[in-house]
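[Meeting: bench + compute handoff]

Bench side (C.D.) handed over the final construct sequence. Compute side (W.E.) agreed to return the predicted structure before the next meeting so the bench team could plan truncations. Sequence as handed over:
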Amino acid sequence: MKYIIIDDEPLAREGIRLNADKIDYLQFQKAFPNPIAVGSYIRDNEVDIVFLDIEMPGLSGLEFLGSSPFDAQVILTTAYPQYALEAYEYNVTDYLVKPIRFERFFKAVEKAKSNFDLLQREAISVEQEAEFVYIRSERTIIKIMLSQLKYIKGMKDYVMLFTDDNKYMTAMNIKTIFAQLPHEQFARVSKSYIVNVNRIQSIANHDISIDELEIAIGESYRKEFYAKHINTKIIDRK
């Protein structure tokens, strides 16, 4: 599970990383000194858990939750226990009071992992039934057969879907559309591209070839992409 840290105290950020490094399924992405510094990162990148402080200069953690909705689970990390009741109105996964003992930290992360695993199982169930999706394009609802969808290109608040016969633009960011596609069939390989893994023709120097297009695999997506979609499919001499 990929996580980020938002906390204005360097020692607090380091403490969270030390605890997280003991849990093998956690993968550190980035740390931020305040919510303002996060910018669009959380919308444009895969983040499963946010460890979020409350009392920070400029914009508090709770103000950040209220102003910037996102899909990641939130574990609040704060020195102030009095915000606990208010915090749960934001549907946070857990509330940790500093100094944080590892046992308590682990319990919170395990709760987040249980939620994550449940969502994954539900997504797989949906994926097994999925053969097509509908999108809105130029005031028209269009049916897209997933087997004919080759790749998707993100362009800020729009995405372009490329099929065997056409291309369609719809008002949606790339993270949102990826969340609604079957992840066994589609892989996000960079900040701007999602590919249908069944349509990949070759991979060379971390570039994917689909028809006439070559798509570079982003460094932060590479490990998961190869592990999930490529390594298990390679026929190799033992």
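W.E. noted at the follow-up: DSSP finds eight helices and 15 strands in the chain. C.D. will use this when planning the next construct.
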